[in-house]
Amino acid sequence: MFSDPIFQDSEVVDYGDANTSKSTIDKKSRNSRSAYLPLPADPPTSEDELVIQCIEERASRFQGHAPQYNMENLQVVKY
């Protein structure tokens, strides 16, 4: 099976259990892997960073030109 080092098992928080204080991995409710993309350098120093910056700029415009520094790192999920 292909392994990508930046992806990790997605976490699910069980809010219905008062004894659960942190995320748990539960494959019954979610079977996916996710990764947070790093913030690009300013100015971007690689093609990957240029792509991430382009997506962030488009997301900013889509939200009415929300400041990019207010946005969280992009997250990608594989199902």
**Overall tally of domains:** 1
How big is the Rg?
Answer: 16 Å
Strand order of the largest sheet: 1-2-3
Note the run of SSEs as H and E. EEHE
| Overall pLDDT score | 79
Taking the alpha carbons of the first and last residues, their distance comes to 14 Å
Beta-strand content = 5-15%
Compute the number of helices: 1
Q: What general outline do the C-alpha atoms trace?
A: extended
pLDDT below 50 for ≥5 consecutive residues: which ranges? none
Helix content: 10-25%
Decide which structural class fits the backbone: alpha+beta
Largest sheet, in brief, is:
3 strands, antiparallel
Strand segment count = 3
List keywords for this structure.
alpha+beta, 3 strands, extended, 79 residues
Overview of this structure, please?
- The longest helix has 16 residues, at 47-62.
- The chain has one domain (8-78).
- A 3-stranded antiparallel β-sheet has the order 1-2-3, with no helix packed on it.
- It has 79 residues and is α+β, with helices and mostly antiparallel strands.
- The chain has one helix at 47-62; strands at residues 8-9, 33-36, 75-78.
- The radius of gyration is 16 Å and the shape is extended.
Write the layout of secondary structure elements.
Layout: E1 8-9, E2 33-36, H1 47-62, E3 75-78
Antiparallel strand pairs: 1-2, 2-3
Question: What's the gist of this structure?
Answer:
This protein has 79 residues and is an alpha+beta fold.
